[in-house]
Design goal:
It is a single chain. The chain has a two-stranded antiparallel ribbon with strand order 1-2. Strand 1 and strand 2 form a beta hairpin. The chain is mainly alpha-helical. It is globular, with a radius of gyration of 20 Å. The two termini are 26 Å apart.
Length: 367
């Protein structure tokens, strides 16, 4: 990574950045026939999509994807609404109320509380950009969201970030108690893998196995958990540098976003080269997501965010605005967005349009 040239040596040595694919090479696996998917979110004029040069959070304008002559914009709002509605329905059907009722109600309370559904959208878009069908990625997309929800439930606990508000509602442990919140999160984690393993159809077993390995690696002691542990140990530490901060967020935030994209690419039949390009894209937007989160934490209210604003400042946590200053943090976010979209060059521009739009959305989001 070349962002700010401040962390190059560390980035080269970071285990999650150097790690080989946990499933080895994809060459030789059984490929599914590629399906040519027509885009449904363009107007009649079909032009190539340009990679917009947008500045993250510098202005209040809505992100949009334009063609080279600034006609026929990709309708990200329509795309996002369709995918979010589809994913919400799939999640609702996957996690139903059954005995014991309390644990399932707790799982559903957080899982169906709203949210941007960025990870499922990324998973589906990555599957489609390599020529796969949406149906191949739906179980993985749901699994990623289940695990993301689990991470929020646990992160909000008093022993972690101790938060009372999430997605505009009381946090899970405030409603169901800490004991049930822990168990509900554990249940979502376990069910995510069950759902991915048993719900994926029309994909070779080798690819399903590869996806399971990828997801497990992303959330374990070398992924999400690693970021959380280092984050906890650094709270209140005034000597945290940019290298440590980047380690925290490449693991705590970016790892699951990366896995969401890579799972989609694997299950969609992507080649090794395609998977690795999309991995780099996802890693950059994953870090971008956290940089923007840090910026919003000091520039927006709790009502606007749907969660407690300014909590990082109160907890004396190191953030990008704290280390770099607000303007430099914005510049860093802009750089990450541009570097991410460069990785999409070479893919069908119409199929890549959702990924471009999602990168811009992450950069411009206001909550």
């Amino acid at each position: 990574m070349r962002s700010l040239n401040l962390v190059d040596p560390w980035v080269q040595s970071c285990s999650i950045l150097k790690q080989p694919l946990p499933f080895g090479s994809l060459i030789g696996l059984v490929y599914n026939p590629r399906i040519v998917c027509k885009p449904h979110f363009f107007s009649k004029s079909r032009k190539f999509i340009s990679s917009l040069s947008v500045s993250a959070i510098v202005t209040e304008q809505e992100p949009k994807v334009l063609t080279s002559d600034e006609e026929s914009p990709f309708d990200f709002k329509a795309y996002g609404l369709e995918k979010a509605t589809f994913v919400n329905k799939a999640l609702d059907e996957a996690v139903s109320v059954k005995n014991p009722v309390m644990i399932h109600e707790s799982m559903r309370y957080s899982l169906l509380a709203g949210g941007k559904r960025v990870r499922p959208m990324l998973c589906i878009a990555a599957c489609e950009v390599v020529g796969g069908q949406q149906s191949a990625a739906v179980p993985a997309a749901c699994a990623a969201e289940m695990i993301h929800t689990m991470s929020l439930m646990h992160d909000d606990l008093p022993c972690m970030d101790n938060d009372d508000l999430r997605r505009g509602k009381p946090t899970n442990h405030k409603v169901f108690g800490e004991d049930v919140a822990v168990l509900a999160g554990d249940s979502l984690l376990a069910f995510a893998f069950e759902f991915l393993a048993t719900g994926t159809t029309g994909v070779s077993p080798d690819r399903v196995l590869a996806a399971i390995g990828e997801l497990a690696k992303a959330i374990g002691s070398e992924g999400l958990v690693a970021g959380q542990v280092v984050d906890l140990s650094c709270t209140g530490n005034t000597n945290v540098g940019l290298d440590t901060l980047e380690f925290i967020h490449l693991h705590k935030t970016a790892a699951l976003l990366e896995a969401s994209v890579v799972l989609g690419a694997i299950l969609g039949g992507g080649s090794d080269f395609e998977v690795e390009k999309l991995r780099t894209f996802a890693r950059k937007i994953g870090l971008l997501f956290q940089v923007v989160d840090d910026i919003l934490d000091v520039t927006k209210s709790s009502a606007e965010l749907g969660k407690t604003a300014g909590k990082d400042l109160v907890a004396d946590k190191t953030t990008y605005p704290k280390l770099l200053g607000l303007e430099k943090a914005r510049e860093f976010a802009h750089k990450l967005n541009e570097e991410a979209k460069e990785q999409l060059v070479g893919f069908d521009p119409y199929k890549a349009a959702p990924l471009v739009a999602l990168a811009n959305y992450i950069a411009f989001r206001q909550n």
